[in-house]
Amino acid sequence: MNSRFTNQVVIVTGAASGIGAVIARHFADAGAKLMLSDVNEKQLAAVAEEIAASGREIPAVKAGDLSKEDIAGGLIKSTIDTYGTIDVLVNNAGGGIIKPFLDHTPDTLRTTIDRNLWTTVWCTWHVVPIMKANGYGRVVNVGADSVRNGLWDHAAYNAAKGGVHAMATGLAREFAKDGITFNVVAPCIVNTPQVQKATLMSPQALQRFVDVVPMGRAGEMDEIASMVCYLASKEASFVTGQVISVNGGSTML
């Protein structure tokens, strides 16, 4: 175990599976005190138990739908009640309903916006006053490279993730002198369990998303988590308002 985040309190949302669970493990391995959140209470508990079984500090957990303001506020309050402070917020909760725009219904559009944008808005809105009072904080959002390259069937998802990107840049300027940084990690297609399952069902449909990546493969969850941890660290003190793609070159700037 390294000591990069020893004695730091880190919230990871969407931590019950996939990228969020891997991010949580990276922080645990670096000594963080964790608060994990997700809508899936059973899987969330399993991730916490797995981290504890590896010899790391037992994470606190708080399940709920973070697109609801009161639930997000409850997560922040529970973290303060448990640990007394908050150093890092990772807004990873999300999950798009990926389909052609005209195939969406009002319900699927609302769900996509709720999962990806409102979860980030409410958690950030509740945590920033605490970080401002402390004179220190790191907010890292998990966005999407599709916002930059306009992938097929991603218009609704991009509407939500584009808001996540834009909010981070605005907040970075607003709180630049308060010791808080706001950044976004924007992955391309990632080799998550969900993607693996979808590939088995429709390999040709998924391959077109890989084909836009010059490296010719999906990203790995550890590659995304590593960038999240860097931006959440003290080493990234002069990095703020950035959308950093981890994408094998699918967009370049």
Automatic annotation (TrEMBL):
Similarity remark: Belongs to the short-chain dehydrogenases/reductases (SDR) family.
Stored InterPro entries: NAD(P)-bd_dom_sf, Sc_DH/Rdtase_CS, SDR_fam
Keywords of this entry: Oxidoreductase
One protein family per Pfam: adh_short_C2
PROSITE patterns, per the entry: ADH_SHORT
Gene3D superfamilies xref list: NAD(P)-binding Rossmann-like Domain
The organism of origin for this protein: Bradyrhizobium jicamae
Domain of life, per lineage: Bacteria
Protein name, as recorded: SDR family oxidoreductase
